[in-house]
Known about the structure:
The protein has helices at residues 2-34, 42-59, 63-69, 83-102, 106-109, 119-130, 140-152, 157-164, 168-185.
Amino acid sequence: xxxSKAAKSEAVQRVAAEEQMRQVMEAGRKLCEADGNEEPKTVxxxxxxxxxxxxxxxxxxDREMGWILSxxxxxxxxxxxxxxxxxxxxxxxxxxxxxxxSGQDAVEAVRLRKSPPDRAAxxxxxxxxxxxxxxxxxxxxxxxxxxxxxxxxxxKARIVARECHCSVRTVWRRWEFQLQVIAQxxxxxx
Length: 190
């Protein structure tokens, strides 16, 4: 009796995981279509999901870094003690406002943050990170690092090769091989 309950529970979990993977792959297909790829292959969908996951993790708020960067700042504005301080603060404000409104140094003056990711993107990113167990080969940690750094689109292959202690050609070979392995091992890739 206990075995049949456990078997049923495992079967239900397996069906739920397959449905979740089907939804993730469908979302990846839609992302590829939005990029202009009308008939994406499974490998292309996997790579697009990797890129989305890297972007999602990049857009998550970094509470620790925010705490570190705010080191000397306090939540309260500067106290204006007398009329001269008030006049100087108003002049600084007007100069900064005019500079931003005129477009001078507006990009340097204001650092724009990406909007936080939605709940579905975070869920897909977590699933993509779980694909690490699907990698093949002797140096899976290096290959994961290659996949992830290339997915961020901030690091060139030459720098990835230097960090992973291999050639640029090896970086691209491992990237291609591991994407194919993941695509084959996913339930939707068969």
